[in-house]
Amino acid sequence: MDVEKVFHMTGGIGKTSYAKNSSLQKKVSDKVKHILIEAVEDLYIETTPKSIGIADLGCSSGPNTLSIIKDIFQTIQSTSHKIRHHSTEFRVYFNDLPTNDFNSIFKALPEFQKLLNQDRKNEFPSIFMGGYPGSFYGRLFPNCYLHFVHSSHCLHWLSRVPPGIYDEEKKSLNKGCVYICDKSPQLVSEAYYQQFQEDFSLFLESRSEELVVGGKMVLTFLGRKGPQHVDRGNSFLWEILTRAFTILVSQGEIEEEELDSYDVHFYAPSREELEDEIRKEGSLEMEKLEMFEIDKEQGRESHGTEFAKAVRAVQESIISNHFGERILDNLFEIFATLVDEEFAKEDIKPITFVLVLRKV
Ligand SMILES: C[S@@+](CC[C@H](N)C(=O)[O-])C[C@H]1O[C@@H](n2cnc3c(N)ncnc32)[C@H](O)[C@@H]1O
């Protein structure tokens, strides 16, 4: 599977769209917003730019996309007022993979521009916004172009399913699991880790070229607590999804081989693994690495149902590419029930990292 061509959040504003099912990600962003605001304030004071460049990597579409930019804009406005330095230009670049629903963002921009204009003090700065399709695992922008890079809920997505999990006949060694699980051979976790190292180092190198000295990044993504890959955090949710697929096999909805050959391009790194890559790259100073345990959402429906909708909005492009669209409703109904059953036994608390890096 070519991730760049297939993977996208469900577009538009329909019932299953990411726009309508991203409150979980919003909740996390709100929880860590103080870190974002502090980083933007510091970088503005340190760099006092004339023209400030901001990029949101993996922006997707929906309310979260513009809400983050509004927070950044307002922080810059109030900081510039405090220190009496006014940038003349505010440049915003929305990045995601090419199949992202950029149209929805573009359609919302005129209204959004009006909203930002209401917050402008002294008619400054002029606002410029545009889309930058492409993978963030590689260069996206010219040298020294950006002051601030934001990315939320993206970096746990690898550039591809690690090639090392396949044998010579191109068969997956991770049979019966979609991510690293209890019964995965050692080779599988090694291959996932290797792919993470390759991707994350390329991400760091690329951003380091694009950031000005003193520029910062605030990166929020899923991770894991310790060296063990299998835990009751993120890997457990993949295990529940695997169980839902297994039920579809027993119902004759999908073939066992289809499940055996399905693996996700996901990796939850540990603190040590992140620190190693940052140290090896060498030009980005780690200012902060905080870990959050995310509690379950109190929605109108059961937690399982809410959670299944959120996972579906993220996963359905990939799942339907492999198994076909027809299984989606049944799969996510089963998944919702299994999630509710597990939560009734014991909480599952996904681990989220917030990483703040500064270009030195
Ligand atoms: C769960 S969404 C997060 C959207 C938004 N940032 C938020 O917090 O609600 C993850 C996004 O990352 C994007 N993404 C994943 N891998 C990417 C890559 N290599 N380059 C650019 N975007 C990527 C996906 O297409 C998707 O839109």
In short:
With 360 residues, the protein is α/β, with parallel strands linked by helices.
Describe this structure in words.
This protein is α/β, with parallel strands linked by helices and about 350 residues long. It contains eleven helices and seven strands. It has helices spanning about 5, 25-30, 35-45, 65-85, 100-120, 185-210, 235-250, 255-260, 270-280, 305-325, 330-345, and strands spanning about 50-55, 90-95, 125-135, 145-150, 210-225, 285-295, 350-360. The protein has a seven-stranded mixed sheet with strand order 3-2-1-4-5-7-6, sandwiched between helices. Helix 5 (about 100-120) links the parallel strand 2 (about 90-95) and strand 3 (about 125-135). The mean pLDDT is about 95. S-adenosylmethionine (SAM) binds near residues 25 and 152. The site of S-adenosylmethionine has 24 residues, from helix 2 and strand 2. Pfam families: Methyltransf_7. GO terms for molecular function: metal ion binding; methyltransferase activity.
